[in-house]
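Design review, sub-item: ligand-bound model
Attendees: FS, YL, KQ
YL presented the inputs for the zinc ion complex:
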Amino acid sequence: MSAAAGSITARNAIFTTPTRPFDVTALFPQLAPLARTTTRLHPRPGAPTVHDSSVGGPLLWPADEPWPYCDVLDGPHEPPIVQDGWYLPEPCLFSPEQVTDYPHPMELDNELRGRLEDMSRWAAIDPAQYNVCAYDPGELYLTNLCTAPGWKTGGWTRWSPGDPVDRACPECGTEAVPLLTIASSEWDGGSATWIAEEDRPTPGPPPLGARDGDFTLIDIAGGNNLQLHVCPSSPYHPHVELLQ
Ligand SMILES: [Zn+2]
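KQ shared the predicted structure:
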């Protein structure tokens, strides 16, 4: 690792998502079997090599395989869209961390969704446990309990601002599941409990991208997420893209 990279971020950094304000499966045991592991990638500026998992870093490419070349282009092998450095992502290293996702309320069956919407069922939870991050239990579930924000693999689909839509595999009709989420930011004002312990404010200027949680400097169509879904029946079936 170069000295420059070390000064930006340590390789294999650890990021720790704080424990959720409370265990939602204690209140709604029917959610427990719906839990899915998701891997938050926590991209952070650094100097990735071909041996690192990264965004904006060099690719590990077989030495005996030619680099893909577009016959139409006559000149430098550079995508014509890249006109200046502002269109390039900040090279970032990934620091994977596994957390638990639960479905968006509108992906639950009617009975369970009704239970979640029944405010009397939340009466056991002292609002002091969450009132710094949400006005009411419904908002708390949506923004701070069900799906982790930011770059991640697996988990449940984040639906915001759109409502859930069908994600049938175009090849076989099986419902596709989240594969990779490319996010415009790792948190926003409403999802602050997902900010990793290591990103909590400290004295001094914040590191690049830390102020708004967008360390890669990638902006998906005005602050949205690009979520790629994969068919569980076959990885060779076409991916389903969601941009919202
Ligand atoms: Zn399929």
